[in-house]
Design goal:
The chain has helices spanning 26-38, 68-80, and strands at residues 3-7, 10-13, 17-22, 41-43, 52-56, 61-64. It is α+β, with helices and mostly antiparallel strands. A four-stranded mixed β-sheet has the order 3-5-6-4. β5 (52-56) and β6 form a beta hairpin. The longest helix has 13 residues, at 26-38.
Length: 81
């Protein structure tokens, strides 16, 4: 199992990620609201502004305060090794 550090000591299983999206768009905000209502949203921002949203294969939506560029770099580095 490969893990991805999403900030503030939080990690997720890289193999279960379906999508990595920015939190700025209106459709993404609707996805977050729907996940919160269903009880499948996980807030890993530690009170900071949400910058990145992960959609997992389990249906969970995970919020991260870490920027998408840094997270995508981590994902790309792991695949090269």
């Amino acid at each position: 199992m490969e893990i991805l550090n999403i900030g503030y000591g939080n990690v997720i299983n890289k193999g279960r990620i379906i999508s990595v999206i920015t939190a700025d768009s209106a459709p993404t905000k609707r996805v977050i609201v729907a996940a919160r209502e269903k009880g499948v949203m996980i807030d890993a921002t530690c009170g900071k502004k949400t910058k990145t949203v992960f959609i997992m294969d389990s249906g969970h939506v995970i919020l991260s305060a870490k920027g998408i560029e840094g997270l995508l770099e981590q994902l790309a580095r792991k695949e090269v090794q």
